[in-house]
Amino acid sequence: MWTLEILSHLMSALDLAQNDDPALGTHEQTRAAILHTSSNRRIPVDFEGGTFEDMLLWLLEQCGSPKTLVRHISMELLESLAPHSKVDSFAASLTLGLRSLSSIVEA
């Protein structure tokens, strides 16, 4: 997720460096950084796979944590990220489930 943000910033930097003198090395350094971010993507051990939906499922598991802070931030993240899932039914059911879970926890 943050890798995509870094990639976006690097692409913007490359765009800004377009008119730089090649001798400065900004083109080559930015290109190397872009290729580095796209080739070194690691999947965390706790995740089933490397997709956005896998991350959402992991966050859903964290909602069952006995630790209050972990549980609450997981619910907040899920509520904000689930609507961005490309699987509409997944996002809709997850968001609906989170609202129910939040009302239970806050009660």
Summary of the model, kept short:
This protein has helices spanning 2-16, 26-39, 52-62, 68-81, 88-106.
Tell me what you see in this structure:
It is a single chain. Helix content is 68%, strand content 0%. With 107 residues, it is mainly α. The protein folds into two domains: 38 residues; 55 residues, no CATH class. Helix 1 packs antiparallel against helix 2 and helix 3 runs antiparallel to helix 4. The mean pLDDT is 79. It comes from Portunus trituberculatus. Pfam families: DNAPKcs_CC1-2 (PF20502). GO terms for molecular function: kinase activity.
Biggest pleated-sheet summary: none
Fraction in helix: 55-70%
Radius of gyration: 19 Å
* Tally of structural domains: 2
- Structural class comes to mainly alpha
Large-scale geometry: elongated
**Beta-strand segment tally:** 0
Q: What is the terminal separation in angstroms? A: 32 Å
Total number of helical segments? 5
Mean pLDDT: 79
Query: What letter string, H or E per element, gives the SSE order?
Result: HHHHH
Unreliable residue runs: none
As a percent range, the share of strand residues is under 5%
